[in-house]
Design brief:
This protein is of the alpha/beta class. The chain is built from 27 helices and 19 strands. The strands form five sheets. Strands 12-9-13-14-8-15 form a six-stranded parallel beta sheet, with helices on both faces. Strands 5-4-3-6-7 form a five-stranded mixed beta sheet, with helices on one face. Strands 17-18-16-19 form a four-stranded parallel beta sheet. The chain is elongated. The relative contact order is 0.08.
């Protein structure tokens, strides 16, 4: 079959349209690439195909690739084709595109069809063969080495599904994503936010604690996205530090390894990225200033600016001051003021927003000191109109099944709560070993917590003397169990642990075995064992006392060792500290460390605050 019959008289090249006969003359292999910009699997596959094509000695000589678009408009086609080095069928030839799809038996995209030099089909989809080569290359990588080099690994199928569903052109606007811990939810969130880059609604990712917000910005620095490109344009010196090369554009589509940066440098980069993405000065009364947009495109004609700001919030602040309205009906928050329409918002600051929530099970927590803020946030999110709402969690049910039902109803919204649950839930309950290799601290089971398993890793420490008396007194006063647990760690209130006139710091540190037997047992175990360790303890349960005690043990006799805090997280996780060469132990606030924070190469985990439920243990380890 003649190529003109397949593609028409003209083929689009990077130099413009040319005669099909001229372009394909002498070619022995012609690959037809059916793809579209709106398709997440396509966007994940295109860079790999481009890389393979660019490395082929036959590319452009004997072998060519022709892109056939399924995009919905010319603008999307132009943007997507701009990332390719292939030829393309002109977008206007939609009738030929439909006929070609039928002739090539295209059932879905991306599809890669192979023709010979005469236009005869040799294979109806060889995309799978290319994937096999990529997977084989990844499997042969040495242990500990990224199988993709500096490149960006493709999204996994469960991640592609979420990115496909949460898109401006998708009818899905509310989704509960139930994917297990370690399945890459942060990257899913980044891809979803990138999908809405040109959407005029502000982007509001919400996290449990401030350190998790900061970790999100660190992940934004790490993974390729248009938000990272925008930041790099406005802060090229920061982009150089994060990417490790003078010209960040040479690593635009690659991972940036920020794990080796000092903690203070990474924190500074995260703060700078937050300020850039907030787009301060770009908006007035919720409307973008044309002068700022035009100035950006004059200076960076080949780059893109987001249509709305992005800022990560904590659950408490999202349901607190940010949710309030001014007397004139506009939101107090400059972020939520963008795209806010008083006529349709019904007094809801979260109407017409793109809201992405991590660890969304926090919405239905009942035992919390921030109950008022969470109540308000629940009501606002359930009643928001014109918004995209996505909640990510690995444990949708913390204690009772009713919590999962309540959470899903919030995600669905009041206007759709009576509808069925179909279309509102993405569930991926498994962790295939091929995708997520098992990497758990020794002795921590990844299975049902039977009584026998509990006994294997729970160590008993008995209270005696003053700690026992103080605990009995507090128990007699009727303190709730949550507060009583703190007195199991430290016999005094944590607020009194200072060097002032009425402080108890000197007395407690002089007799840790008597005043804080559990914390003393943890510190003693770490001092006597050279394995890299992590301690999770709440500030109200004696974090400062344990930290001071460990630092004292680390410098007094025996083998010295380093003690890190969250400020040294980057150094603790660095390859140079894989066995605790610099920092043997990191002491972290249990209230601020959950799914969003990772600790690498840890051999021993000490949970000073015993998890109340199995799901709480999963969150910790």
């Amino acid at each position: 079959m003649a190529f003109v019959d397949l593609f028409g008289d003209k083929i689009l090249t990077k130099e413009g349209e040319k005669d099909t006969t001229e372009v394909l003359a002498g070619k022995t292999h012609v690959l037809i690439y059916f793809s579209a910009h709106w398709c997440p699997p396509c966007r994940g596959y295109t860079p790999a195909l481009s890389e393979a094509y660019g490395k082929s000695a036959k590319a452009g000589k004997e072998t060519v690739i022709i892109f056939v678009s399924s995009d919905r408009d010319q603008a999307a086609f132009d943007e997507y084709y701009g990332t390719m080095s292939f030829y393309a069928m002109p977008f206007a030839q939609r009738d030929l595109k439909e006929k070609l799809s039928e002739k090539c038996y295209v059932k879905g995209i991306p599809t890669l069809v192979l023709l010979d030099g005469e236009g005869k089909m040799q294979a109806d989809n060889i995309r799978g063969e290319h994937d096999k080569v990529a997977r084989k290359k990844a499997a042969s990588a040495p242990p500990g080495e990224c199988p993709y080099g500096d490149g960006c690994p493709p999204l996994q199928p469960h991640q592609e599904a979420v990115a496909f569903l949460l898109h401006p052109q998708s009818p899905v606007t509310r989704l509960l994503v139930d994917h297990p811990t370690g399945s890459g939810k942060t990257r899913e969130m980044i891809r979803v936010l990138d999908n809405f880059f040109h959407d005029p609604r502000p982007k509001v990712p919400i996290f449990p604690k401030e350190p998790v917000c900061r970790n999100f910005y660190a992940e934004l620095l790490r993974w390729p996205s248009r938000y990272r490109d925008f930041f790099a344009c406005l802060r090229p010196q920061d982009a150089t530090r994060a990417s490790g090369v003078r010209d960040w554009k040479t690593k635009r589509a690659q991972l940036w390894d920020v794990s080796g940066l000092p903690g203070s440098d990474l924190k500074e980069l995260c703060i700078n990225m937050r300020e850039v993405l907030e787009m301060k000065g770009w908006f007035f009364m919720g409307k973008m200033r044309r002068s700022r947009r035009e100035a950006f495109y004059r200076r960076y004609p080949d780059e893109a600016a987001p249509a709305a700001p992005l800022r990560a919030l904590r659950y408490t602040s999202a349901g607190g001051r940010h949710a309030e309205l001014r007397p004139d009906g506009l939101p107090v928050s400059a972020l939520l003021k963008v795209a806010f329409d008083r006529a349709t918002a019904n007094g809801n600051a979260y109407s017409n927003k793109v809201v992405i929530m991590d660890e969304v099970h926090n919405l239905v927590r009942v035992q919390t000191q921030f109950g008022e803020q969470l109540d308000r946030l629940r009501l606002l999110l359930a009643g928001a109109t014109g918004s995209v709402l996505a909640g990510f969690t690995g444990t949708p049910i913390l204690n009772e099944a009713a919590e999962g039902r309540c959470l899903l109803d919030i995600i669905k919204g009041r206007s759709q709560v009576l509808k069925g649950d179909g279309g509102f839930l993405s569930s991926f309950p498994m962790r295939p070993a091929g995708l997520f290799p098992l990497s758990l601290p020794l002795g921590i089971p990844d299975k049902v917590l039977t009584p026998n398993l509990r006994r294997q890793f729970v160590r008993r420490v008995f209270l005696t003397g003053e700690p026992l008396k103080r605990y009995d007194v507090k128990c007699a006063k009727g303190l709730p169990e949550r507060r009583l647990r703190a007195y199991c760690n430290l016999c005094v209130h944590f607020g009194s642990l200072h060097d002032g006139k009425n402080g108890s710091k000197a007395r407690v540190l002089a007799d840790m075995a008597g005043c804080a037997p559990k914390l003393h047992a943890i510190a003693k175990d770490i001092a006597e064992n050279s394995e890299k360790a992590l301690v999770l303890v709440a500030r109200s349960s004696g974090l400062e006392a344990l930290l001071a005690h460990l630092q004292e043990l680390a410098s007094s006799g025996g083998q010295a060792f380093g003690v890190a805090t969250m400020e040294e997280l980057a150094e603790f996780n660095a390859p140079s500290n894989v066995r605790g060469e610099q920092y043997r132990v990191l002491v972290a606030d249990a209230a601020q460390c959950s799914e969003g924070v990772s600790f690498f190469a840890v051999r021993r985990v000490h949970l000073a605050d015993v998890p109340v439920t199995p799901s709480a243990l999963v969150q910790s380890v």
